[in-house]
Every structure is written in C-alpha cells, then in structure tokens.
Amino acid sequence: MKFLAPLAAAATIVTGAANAQHASFESAVPALSHYGSTVVQGDLWKRPGLSARDRSIVTVATLIAREQTALMPEELARALDNGVKPSELSGIVTHLAFYAGWGNAAAAADALAPIYETRGIPAESLPGAEVEQLPLNQEAEDAREAGVQANHAETSIGVVDYTRDVLFRDLWLRSDLAARDRSLVTVTALVAVGQAEQVPFHLGRAMDNGLTRDEASEALTQLAFYAGWPRVFSAMPVFRSVFDARPTSE
Amino acid sequence: MKFLAPLAAAATIVTGAANAQHASFESAVPALSHYGSTVVQGDLWKRPGLSARDRSIVTVATLIAREQTALMPEELARALDNGVKPSELSGIVTHLAFYAGWGNAAAAADALAPIYETRGIPAESLPGAEVEQLPLNQEAEDAREAGVQANHAETSIGVVDYTRDVLFRDLWLRSDLAARDRSLVTVTALVAVGQAEQVPFHLGRAMDNGLTRDEASEALTQLAFYAGWPRVFSAMPVFRSVFDARPTSE
Amino acid sequence: MKFLAPLAAAATIVTGAANAQHASFESAVPALSHYGSTVVQGDLWKRPGLSARDRSIVTVATLIAREQTALMPEELARALDNGVKPSELSGIVTHLAFYAGWGNAAAAADALAPIYETRGIPAESLPGAEVEQLPLNQEAEDAREAGVQANHAETSIGVVDYTRDVLFRDLWLRSDLAARDRSLVTVTALVAVGQAEQVPFHLGRAMDNGLTRDEASEALTQLAFYAGWPRVFSAMPVFRSVFDARPTSE
C-alpha cells in the first residue's frame, strides 16, 4: 500500500476533527481506517490546488445532495473547523433545499442543529429571510429567462416562474454565500447525484466568478472520494469541455 | 424577497400539518423557515392545477423513491390530512417497493407504522395480498409483453417473467391505488431519481387514465421543490415531447 | 396473485434470517408481507442461476451503494448466513468506499459493527491495510492507465493519480475479495445508482474473471427487486451489448 509509509508521519501531525476516523471503521472495516488516515486525511485533504475550506464545501455539499447522514456530524463540524462560517454553512443548506430537494435540507438541518447548539451558535446570528442582496446582472438574467421561457413555459409555467422569482432573482442574490461558492456547491451537487449534463452552465458561472481551473480539477479529486469514482468519471469529460471552451490564459 | 409580503397573510390561514415547519430549520437554517412558510407552504401547496391530495402523492412518492427519511413523518401525516386514504398510502409504498426498491419500501414502512398506530389505523384495515383486481387491457398488455420479450428475454428471462407476472398482471391491477394515481407515483419516482428516459411510457399511461396536462405541469412544479430543480430541468423536455405527441384537444 | 398458492409450501421450508420479513411491513404495508414471503423470499432467493451467497453480494452492494440503511441490518446478517465471509463483507464495504462514496461506507460500517459484535467477530480477524496482493496484469493495467491518462490527465491529474495508485494498483489487488466478486460488486453498484454507461468495462472484467452469463442475468433479476425495476430496465440493453460482444461459447 503505497500511501502507508510516506504518509504515516504526516498523519500524526493532523489533529482534531480533520483527523477523526469514522468510529465504526475501526471495528467493522479496519482497512478503511488505514485508507482514511493515510490516503484521505493524510493526503487528499492536504493537497495543494484547493483549500481545506473549499474541500469542506465540496464534501458537505456532496453529503447533503445525497442525504448521506452517517458522515454529516463529523463533516459539518470539520467544515466549521476549516473556516466555513456558520452563515455560509446554513447558506449551503438553503441553496441545496432548491438544488437537491427540500428533504435533503431537512436532513442536513437535523444534523446541523445540535452542532450549532454545542458550539453556542444562536439562530439569531444566522441569515434569515432578509440578507443584503448581491447586484443582479440584468443582461445575463434576461438571456437566461428568455431561454427558459422559450424552452419550458408551455411545459410548466410554475417551474419557469419559481425559477425566475425564487431562484435567480432571490436565492442566487443572497449574500450569505459568495457567488463563486454558490456555484461550487451547485456543481458539486450535480456531480454527486449523476447529473453531469447540467454542469456546463454552472461550472462556467463558477469560473466567471473566480473558481480557477486548478480548483475545479481538485474539486473532482475531492468528489472522487466522497461521491465515488463512477460519478467523477462521468463528469470529467463535461469538465474538460468547459475547460477547453474557455480562454487559454486561465 | 418577493414572497414575503403578499403571502404573509395567506400563511396565517393555513393551520395544522400543512403549515408545519421542519423543526430544525428554525434553529439551524432560519432562511428555510421563511422560504417554507411563504413560498412552499404559503404558495406552492395552494396553487391551482393540482389538488393538495395529489401534491401529497407527488411529495411522498419523491421521499420514498429517494429514501429521504427526514421529511417522511411530517409528509406521510400530511398526506393523510390531505385526503390520501391509508389504503392508498400503503398502496404507494407497495408500488414503490418494485419501482424504487425493496429497501425504499422498508424505510417508508418504518416511518408509516408509528403514524398508523397513533391514528388508530389497524393492519386489518389495510390492503393485503388479495384485493379486487382492475380489468386487464389484454391488447395493450400483449403489446407490452411482446416488446419486452423481444428486447430483453435473452438478457434476463427472470426480469421478463417477473415483469409480466408480478408487475403488469398483478401489481398494476391492484385496486388499492387507482390506475391514474399509480402512474402518477411511477412518473414521480422516475423524475425524482433522474430516470427521465423512462417517463414517456408511464406519463402516457397516466394521461390515458385521466391525468390532465395541467396536473402533469403542476406535478413538475411540486417536484422542483421536493426532488430539486436539476431533476425537473432534465425531465421537462421529456414531458414536453409527451405533451406534443398527444391530441391538441387535451 | 399467482405466487400465493404454489409458493406457500416452499415458504414454510425457509427458516431464519432468509425468511425474515421487514418488521414494519406487517403493520403498515401488509401487501408487502405477502409479496415478501411469496415472491421475494419464497421464489427470487431460491432461483437457480445465482447462488444465495451471490444474491446476498448483489443485495448488500445495492443497499450500500444507495445508502439504504433500513434494510441493512437484516441483509448484512443474511449475507453472513448465506456464506459471505466477514472478510469479504468488510471487503465489499471497503470497495464501495471508493465506488459509491466515503459516506456510503460509513453508513454500512455503522450497520455492520453491531452485527460483528453480536456474532463475536473481532476487528483483528478482519482485513486491514496489509493483505496478500493478487498478481497485477501489467499489460491490461498499462492499457487502462494509458487510456485514462490520455482522456483525463489534463482535467484532473489528482483523479488520474489516485485511480492508478489507490484503485488499480492497490484496492483491486486486495485478496480479501476475489476479482470476480469485486467486479460483481462494482457492476451492481453502477446499476443500483443508474450509471449503466460504465457497466461494460466492469461487466467484461467480471466475465473475464469467471462470472457466467447466467449469473449476470440473475444478478439483474435480483437487482430488479432491490434497486427497483427502472434501474434494471435502463441497464438491460447495456448488459445485452456486453453479452453479444463476447464469444458465443460462453
């Protein structure tokens, strides 16, 4: 096992939540304790190209999009330890209520509430209905709306209306999550549930808003472990087509 | 937030389960309490075009198909409050044992059992092995069976045999769920897990059995919130192709 | 219900875990108790073409790949009863940590730990980091690596490197799971989550390593019940194309 020797030393440096092994691995799947401390905690999370904070965003967005409750307690806590602010973490759950499903948000909120309670983070400190709004790019929004109207208004005017009023002129303008982070969460959720066909629009937005190509590449690496290899292999050609279509200076 | 002011009054009218907020939203994701009381409970569930009963069918079918246990207690209870009969609710679980998976049905039954116990609904009142059978459309069934035989008999005769004997000449004929509702449950489950490619056959059946185009459009709107926007955007072109292929008088 | 009469006798022969009904079916969905004892336990699990051991491998791989925790306790226990060794069962969880996601493995380990404790299976008896390695087919691995390098190195070198170092030159060589079983687990996971497009490579490997066409056909039958009919109907054309491309003597 290539990663066992060289990383044993590194693994001992890591402390706290970032090094926590899922408790039942030790007794039921000891091999995963070893892969965990060497490859995952000792190597993946320390790779350059994507910050630990952003790796936590990718990881918790994956867990929420898939309603994977078993890892939520430790990974939501790690996200806070890695510098994701409570307002951002709650903002991720709010965003995924719409981009994964209301039930996914409910499961995430159930896991998040006791963590906030333990850490003394009161509801009043978290973003509510009214937050400062980011500026709307009216031209881009008009183009998006025109396309959706043309393609979908006759199929479901309800979806078209809510997409405009609740998503693109409300949710996406909320300042509790930076535009770049919101797009990273969206791309992650799409890869995690196997909907790579919708990645181009959102990955393009993410890169327009500052996500670098190296960061997107490393988000795929993080996703390989947390969403599983097959989801990532289906997404890689789509990422490549987005990369190839952008200016080479990036 | 556009929906805050105009719907605040409407929200106060709603009472009981239909207005219940998922408990942990208030402390962990306050923004979702607001979206919940305004956009979801105060607007979505009251839209014309699809009855509250049918919205509950779409919602619980989504939760079961995705094994989203966090919302099951409140949404299964709301389904009963909205007029879904216990025999129909158990019929939905039975149907999804085959159209989502045996494990999905197990999770749903685990959530349903305590609700029935609280409400005093005994097992003897629920449909068992023997229920009145709906008439078989022999011509349509022969055509379906011939197609499946031709395409799949050499790949898996077991799947072909069970499809005929257990699904189309048994499950689909059970009278515990009306044909139109059974098809709505099936279409919902397909959209919820991202298998829009199988929607045409079942959406056509649903519309043959009385689901209107307006109801199908509103089912998509309900699905946007409970299955997440991406699943619905992948399904809309498929719905449109089914709509376009039907007589314009519908 | 065709299966009620002829299988009633057979059902009485089955004892123990193999006949256990999911407890809440009786009170909440009695129809599923009947389908369970007749069609599923009384017929599916006894079909020729795939051993009960292999049916358990398909079933638990489905549950883990979908994080379906409700059925895990009974099906993990049944797998042990059906002859899946603890080292193999933990090996399946290890494999799916990479092929379904780290969170899926965590949920499976949580369900597996109390079963091992009850049965007195200590962690020291389970495979850890170091297990005997199966021989590497250097030629096939070089071809795989060259293809992945050419297609994906510019998109995510991290994914490419881990795929080589952790998956194909480590995980796939672990002797805690036979190559044929490891491929069966992988194919099952792909079908269970709706990623049939990646089945050909892994089904070909499975058949190269001894999985017969009849066994693959029956794996689809088992998957129909545990992953749901739609997943299997999307997978059948892919299985057929793999079958058709192989020598007719198989």
Q: Any overview of this molecule?
A:
The structure is a homotrimer of 250-residue chains. Helix content of chain A is 66%, strand content 0%. The model of chain A is unreliable at 4-19 (pLDDT under 50). The two termini of chain A are 36 Å apart. The first copy, chain A, is globular. Chain A is mainly alpha-helical and 250 residues long. Chain A has 13 helices and no strands. In chain A, helix 4 packs across helix 10 (179-192) and helix 8 (138-152) runs antiparallel to helix 9. Chains in contact: A-B, A-C, B-C. At the A-B interface, helix 6, helix 7 and helix 9 of A face helix 2, helix 3, helix 12 and helix 13 of B.
